[in-house]
Design a protein that fits this description.
Layout (H helix, E strand, L loop, with lengths): L1 E9 L2 E10 L2 H8 L3 H9 L14 E6 L1
Antiparallel strand pairs: 1-2, 1-3
Amino acid sequence: MFNCKIYQELGESSLTIFDRDFKSLREIAIELGLSYQQVADLSSRSIRPKYQQFKFFPKIDISRI
């Protein structure tokens, strides 16, 4: 089981855009319209992705539950 949470930090608070549990990474990929490899990279990446250099970007957390 995996949890996928997409949120935007707004100063001291945050806005949750998406927060659901899935049975597999493939289900997350289908739901978000991404490839399986992109989702696998997001779930295992410990370094900052390139898109985080922008001022506004959603944070995507994929964790095993």
